[in-house]
Amino acid sequence: MPDRLSALDASFLYLEDAATPMHVGGVAIFERPREGFDYEQVLCLIRQRLGYLPRYHERVLTVPGHLARPVWADDVDFDLNYHVRRSALPTPGTEVQLFELVARLMARPMDHERPLWEVYFVEGLEHDRVALITKTHQAVVDGVGTVELGQLILDSVPQPCEPTEDNWVPRRPPSAAQLLLDAVSETVQRPGELVENVRAAASDAAATVDKFTDAVGGLATAVRALVRPAPAGPLNTHVSGGRVFAVVRTRLEDYRRVRDRHGGTVNDIVLAAITGALREWLVSRGENVVPATTLRALVPMAVLEPGVEFSSAGLVNNQLEPHLVDLPVGEPNPVLRLQHISHAMRAYTDSRPSVAARAMLKVGGFAPATMHSLAARTARSFSGRIFNLVITNSPGPQMPLYAGRAKMTEMYPVIPLARNQTLAIGVTSYHGGVYFGLNGDRKAVSDVGQLASMIEESLSELQSAPW
């Protein structure tokens, strides 16, 4: 039987266009060790780990006439050097230049004739640092058979990469005739899928994507029917093909101090800091902000099925459920903003057991890379009309990790934009820091750097707020 894409995975391909490429990214910054850390070592490391990720050797084959969903097949022309690319900043490269490069790379759709992932090794960053920028299509990372590459190339101890032979031998891909034969055989068994497959691949894909949301459970459908449209505003306009990217560095200890003083969880405080920043950002743009003004965030969160322990293998047994949270941007008091958010999040966690941060930290490798990919997939199951922005937050290990001998110092998620949604924010904690990646549309949110600085100011406001 062919390895056919799931309905949800196929929808990511059908709905992708030049303005909204559907890949998730990450930016990891490393200290270059005394022994060096170069492109050849990155190639060695990735080559060594690809055996654990068969999907990264596979490309998508479209069925003639779209009589069935596409299939996965080995790429007989697989070229590791195509996927792992070398880049450099003008020495000494600044972080502004690095993040501009990130924005340009993330704006480019990937070649569907090849496996749907890319890694960029970026040299020349000031203070003798290098960066790895990853791009992985949302159709690839399902958390079941395939995790994000960034979860496998990082280790808890520094170790050199020993060159190994690449013994991978591609299987012969199915011919067009075989693809048709398999499609016809499946259509005989499930004739209703033929109409949906043709419609999904045609111009009315957006109208049929609702059929695909069953792949992430019935919650999305239920919420879609019950929730009112999201408030109008600058975050929901036409998305262009350009991107801007900005980051925020904060310390985990600051969130713990706010938690000890004002209550809530670290995740609540992250959302409150973002809420305060969005308030100031709207005001700076001349938007009408009144006490009742809200913005709605879609916040995917990991939940546990009853009796299931969260584990690295258990990503398949756990779910990411999308929570819609009204952020009280109209509330001028930072503590009251936090209390509103804590109350809203508590209503979700009381109704369904969420995965505690300490449980997620047991997952091997850098699990946030996979969790952000799964969160982006979950967000895409919703109509963009019912939320203003996506916010994903995944805790990472509080110990240093290494790619080869190079120590990772920072990591920023890059969450993709959906149609008519001009801002997405990913948050990851790692080794005492909390790192925000803000991905914005270049036309609609050109001032994303200003918004990033406002997040720092909003957190400071929470820290200094009286009881």
Automatic annotation (TrEMBL):
| O-acyltransferase WSD1-like N-terminal domain mapped to chain residues | 5-270
In this chain the O-acyltransferase WSD1 C-terminal domain maps to 318-462
* MF terms in GO: acyltransferase activity
Question: Its catalytic activity?
Answer: an acyl-CoA + a 1,2-diacyl-sn-glycerol = a triacyl-sn-glycerol + CoA
User: Which pathway is recorded for this entry?
Assistant: Glycerolipid metabolism; triacylglycerol biosynthesis; Lipid metabolism
Claim: Lipid biosynthesis is one of the keywords in the record:
yes
The name of this protein is Diacylglycerol O-acyltransferase
Source organism per entry reads Amycolatopsis pigmentata
